[in-house]
Write a sequence for this structure.
């Protein structure tokens, strides 16, 4: 293979023979390490710290970061360093709980829709479309209002219940494509039940294509929690989370207290970034061929 | 015929949506009288409460209320906002242009810029430019809109004092320039919140396209890279881009709502948020139906455009219609 073929994008066969797919680039070591550190910190620090994150100390109101208060204090005199860790605990658990819930719903709905006769499938997908059409934030606020005072469980429930639609669509498409394939027919011929086929033959296939979306749902749930709590529709001020910490930002802005806005936000963004890196890595494991351009 | 069927399905969807919103809103705890009378509602005697509820029609069972609402709505009476004590249409009319300005211009900016960035990234795949743009995109997709808003307010309003932090115009009014100054920060947040996501989508869609055999053929006939990318690949990628645009409407709309709340921008979003939190039932209904209608219409539009652009979809539809005719 020589230079002439480079013009049309042909490359030496040796390069194509070793596709980059199974060697999915760099492993996101940094992201994984950071996430592990965050999880560990959120689990351990609230046990180790002597300062109570919820205790208000109005004599130390909106103090700049210094030796005693590493990250400063907020406008209610709470220590931000302590709040970061206990707040992270709340934010991360909501992220994971909500995603677990939405994934279960998505797989159930998607599988039913994918295996159902055409009319039922059309009905379910129509309903999914309608649900997708309502801005999810509005649904979350409405549902949260219906459940009363927000706590970690109710907020996870609400966020999870509104985040399953797009994953369900993918599951449904995959299942519909896969169910006509030969190996599913073979399994059916051998007497495999619907549930058995779903678990042993369909799930391993569609799991690969939804993993990325599921990881992104963790991100979405953390963002939803913080946005809601920031707007005052989520967790109340005394339940510390990264979002509810930021709901004091309005006072902080007028006081010019940058650390109240910046520090929780930076932790939030760094965590989201690490989750995204992990998700991207999962997606990159899908093979990509050589460009013809 | 086709149009009539789509119209029917639109109306049916709106009916289902209205029923769902109606029930959820009314089952939610919370006192609509507070929204009407403010703090006074808490000091009312039970008899007063009962009288007021009867006056506002809140005492009947929910399905009776729904049928009544539906009948009035079909006669063109969409109800009265509890909070503003005005016809909901009037309340919304005062706000809708603000949101259209923010969301509409934001939408246009997002999609034109995303197309450009996506093409740029696809053209220079794997080169430093592509890598930098992708990294920037990942970063900005990880910054929640409300925090970006806070950050921008902190920088430009608190420290630099060059841009206003809230509202859509100054109290004393200042014409178009003033409007523009108030739009800069919210618009920045709306655009950066979504731009990268769609740019990345186009990039990936184009990269799939670039690997097709027809590109090889086109290149071997001597067409330039740019021409192949713009005339051949883009044409194939465009239908899915348009449907992505339609699907993105609720996302951008939802984003606009958050941004409006942070910046206290008097638009539909702040109204939506208020009405949901404070049980302003009639207003909430209309806002939800409006949002739903916009999205459904956009979806239909995208499908129609899809069929028009992509001959394959058109052919498949014709085939199906023929099969239906015979069967």
């Amino acid at each position: 293979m020589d230079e002439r073929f480079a013009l049309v994008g042909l490359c030496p066969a040796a390069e194509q023979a070793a596709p980059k797919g199974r060697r999915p680039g760099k492993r996101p070591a940094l992201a994984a390490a950071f996430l592990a550190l965050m999880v560990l910190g959120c689990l351990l620090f609230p046990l180790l710290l002597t300062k109570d994150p919820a205790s208000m100390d109005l004599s130390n109101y909106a103090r700049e970061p210094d030796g005693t208060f590493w990250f400063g204090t907020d406008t209610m005199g709470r220590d931000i360093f302590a709040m970061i860790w206990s707040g992270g605990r709340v934010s991360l658990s909501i992220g994971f709980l909500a995603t677990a819930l939405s994934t279960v719903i998505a797989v159930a709905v998607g599988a039913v829709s994918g295996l159902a006769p055409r009319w039922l499938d059309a009905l379910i997908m129509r309903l999914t479309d309608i649900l997708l059409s309502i801005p999810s934030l509005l649904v979350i606020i409405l549902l949260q209002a219906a459940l009363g005072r927000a706590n970690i469980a109710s907020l996870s429930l609400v966020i999870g219940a509104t985040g399953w639609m797009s994953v369900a669509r993918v599951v449904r498409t995959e299942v519909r494509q896969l169910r006509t394939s030969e190996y599913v027919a073979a399994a059916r011929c051998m007497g495999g039940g619907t549930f058995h086929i779903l678990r042993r033959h369909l799930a391993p296939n569609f799991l690969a294509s939804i993993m990325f979306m599921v990881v992104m749902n963790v991100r979405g749930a953390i963002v939803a929690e913080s946005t809601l709590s920031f707007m005052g529709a989520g967790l109340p001020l005394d339940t510390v989370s990264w979002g509810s910490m930021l709901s004091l930002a309005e006072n902080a802005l007028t006081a010019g207290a940058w650390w109240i806005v910046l520090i929780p936000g930076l932790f939030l963004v760094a965590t989201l970034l690490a989750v995204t890196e992990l998700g991207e890595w999962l997606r990159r494991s899908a093979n990509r061929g050589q460009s013809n351009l | 015929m086709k149009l009539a069927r789509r119209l029917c399905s639109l109306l049916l969807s709106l009916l289902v949506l209205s029923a769902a919103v109606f029930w959820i809103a009314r089952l939610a705890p919370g006192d609509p009288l507070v929204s009407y009378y403010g703090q006074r509602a808490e000091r009312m005697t039970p008899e007063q409460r009962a009288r007021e509820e009867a006056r506002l029609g809140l005492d009947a069972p929910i399905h009776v209320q729904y049928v009544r609402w539906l009948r009035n709505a079909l006669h063109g009476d969409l109800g009265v906002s509890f909070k503003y004590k005005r016809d909901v249409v009037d309340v919304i009319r005062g706000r809708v242009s603000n949101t259209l300005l923010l969301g509409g211009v934001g939408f246009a900016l997002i999609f034109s810029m995303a197309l450009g960035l996506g093409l740029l990234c696809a053209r220079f795949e794997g080169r430093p430019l592509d890598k930098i743009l992708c990294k920037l995109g990942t970063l900005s997709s990880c910054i929640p809109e409300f925090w970006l808003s806070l950050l921008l307010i902190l920088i430009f309003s608190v420290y630099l004092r060059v841009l206003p932090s809230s509202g859509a115009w100054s109290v004393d009014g200042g014409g178009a320039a003033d409007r523009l100054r108030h739009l800069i920060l919210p618009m920045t947040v709306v655009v950066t919140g979504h731009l990268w996501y769609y740019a990345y989508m186009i990039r990936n869609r184009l990269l799939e396209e670039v690997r097709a055999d027809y590109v090889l053929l086109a290149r071997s006939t001597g067409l330039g890279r740019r021409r192949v990318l713009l005339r051949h690949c883009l044409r194939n990628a465009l239908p899915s881009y348009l449907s992505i645009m339609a699907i993105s409407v609720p996302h951008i709309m939802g984003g606009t709502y958050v941004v409006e709340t942070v910046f206290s921008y008097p638009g539909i979003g702040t109204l939506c948020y208020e009405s949901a939190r404070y049980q302003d039932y009639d207003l909430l209904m209309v806002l939800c139906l409006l949002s739903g209608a916009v999205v459904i219409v956009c979806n239909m539009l995208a499908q129609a455009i899809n069929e028009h652009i992509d001959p394959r979809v058109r052919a498949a539809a014709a085939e199906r219609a023929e099969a239906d005719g015979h069967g």
